[in-house]
């Protein structure tokens, strides 16, 4: 390789790294994915994220970018070591970010890169992101939302530093729009969940029978959605499944606490609802005792969540408000009637992604059901 070729290669690789930052800033996910070889990998262990192949990079980018209020990335030149048609290098990154749920900060990071020469030019074979410094202090500046071409809100939108007006509690009972359901479903899929939009609870009742094989051990949550839809009765009284809840209720709690704990923690399937699902792809479950949360978190081999349309909210902060302001008061009424004592949000589970794609299925309904 002559010196001119080496210089040309270095310039092209440096341009590739700049193109990466521009695609991220412009939220151009197809262009971002095109900068990688077909089997290229983007790995961010600190988050954690691992995307292999262009389709995963597009979907993962959609998932991450749906969480942003604003995001700024600067790339600074690093090393490039050429070796024929391959190369390695490092690029140095400075980022400012704030997410829709209020997380914010400044970080400095390193991309550890492998590059491959292709017929289309140099591409990333792998980028591994390593955070070297992270400051989560509130950011002092503001981020005026400009043109939509940058992925931001319209210019006349509320400023990022202005607190959003709280949604009235009554709105937590109103069904989400078709667009909101589609956004939530897309974000869930980007996070590794399977997500389907169904017309109503009757359709969900049929779909659960398709998803849960006969004879499987199944734990149902204490859910009004399951009770009102008939899914609870199908599972716990229909004889089709090895139903966990009736077995637990038959065990003496004073002498069989360990057996109860084991039964609840690791069934084949958990079928439940949630308190809220966000348009950014998070599921929020609340519990007084916490007994049903291990199976939902990952103890069950498979999970199916049935979610009424009124439970879809824009972001995580709104989801937490929905738990406290809407779901808890209604659950208090039920708990007083069933258990003779009020409920409480003693345990809270937030599922931001499914690390084992295919494990979790979310059935989003166009109708409101449960609370």
Note down, in words, how this protein is organized:
The protein has 371 residues and is of the alpha/beta class. 33% of the residues lie in helices and 30% in strands. The protein is built from eleven helices and 17 strands. It has helices at 3-25, 29-34, 54-65, 178-190, 201-211, 224-229, 231-237, 244-249, 257-265, 293-299, 316-339, and strands at 36-44, 49-52, 68-76, 80-83, 86-99, 104-118, 121-135, 194-198, 217-220, 242-243, 269-272, 276-278, 283-287, 302-307, 312-313, 347-351, 360-365. The protein is elongated. The model is unreliable at 145-170 (pLDDT under 50).
Quick tags:
371 residues, alpha/beta, six-stranded parallel β-sheet, 17 strands, 33% helix
Outline:
This protein is of the alpha/beta class and 371 residues long.
Helix and strand arrangement:
Blueprint: H1 3-25, H2 29-34, E1 36-44, E2 49-52, H3 54-65, E3 68-76, E4 80-83, E5 86-99, E6 104-118, E7 121-135, H4 178-190, E8 194-198, H5 201-211, E9 217-220, H6 224-229, H7 231-237, E10 242-243, H8 244-249, H9 257-265, E11 269-272, E12 276-278, E13 283-287, H10 293-299, E14 302-307, E15 312-313, H11 316-339, E16 347-351, E17 360-365
Parallel strand pairs: 1-7, 8-17, 9-10, 9-11, 11-14, 12-15, 14-17
Antiparallel strand pairs: 1-2, 3-5, 4-5, 5-6, 6-7, 12-13, 13-16
């Amino acid at each position: 390789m002559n010196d001119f070729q080496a210089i040309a290669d270095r310039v092209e690789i440096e341009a590739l790294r700049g193109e990466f930052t521009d695609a991220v800033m412009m939220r151009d996910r197809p262009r971002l994915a095109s900068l990688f070889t077909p089997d290229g990998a983007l790995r961010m262990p600190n988050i954690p994220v691992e995307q292999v192949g262009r389709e995963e990079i597009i979907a993962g980018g959609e998932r991450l970018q749906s969480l942003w209020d604003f995001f700024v990335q600067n790339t600074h030149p690093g090393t490039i070591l050429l070796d024929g048609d391959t190369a390695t290098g490092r690029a140095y990154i400075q980022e400012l970010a704030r997410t829709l749920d209020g997380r914010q900060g400044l970080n400095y990071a390193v991309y550890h890169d492998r590059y491959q020469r292709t017929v289309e030019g140099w591409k990333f074979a792998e980028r591994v992101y390593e955070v070297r410094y992270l400051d989560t202090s509130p950011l002092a500046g503001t981020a005026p939302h400009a043109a939509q071409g940058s992925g931001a809100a319209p210019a006349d939108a509320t400023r990022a530093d202005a607190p959003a007006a709280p949604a009235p509690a009554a709105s937590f009972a109103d069904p989400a729009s078709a667009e909101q359901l589609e956004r939530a479903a897309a974000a869930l899929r980007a996070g590794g969940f399977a997500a389907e939009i169904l017309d109503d609870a009757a359709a969900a009742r049929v779909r659960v029978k398709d998803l849960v094989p006969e004879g499987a051990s199944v734990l149902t949550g204490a859910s009004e959605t399951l009770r009102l839809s008939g899914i609870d009765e199908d599972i716990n009284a229909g004889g089709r499944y090895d139903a966990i809840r009736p077995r637990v209720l038959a065990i003496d709690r004073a002498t069989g606490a360990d057996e109860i704990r084991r039964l609840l923690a690791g069934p084949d399937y958990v079928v439940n609802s949630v308190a809220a699902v966000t348009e950014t792809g998070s599921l929020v479950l609340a519990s007084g005792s916490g007994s049903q949360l291990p199976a939902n978190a990952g103890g069950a081999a498979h999970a199916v969540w049935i979610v009424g349309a009124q439970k879809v909210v824009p972001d995580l902060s709104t989801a937490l408000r929905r738990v406290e302001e809407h779901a808890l008061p209604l659950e208090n009424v039920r708990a007083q009637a069933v258990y003779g004592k009020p409920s409480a949000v003693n345990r809270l589970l937030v599922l931001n992604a499914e690390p084992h794609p295919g494990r979790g299925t979310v059935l989003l309904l166009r109708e409101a059901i449960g609370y």
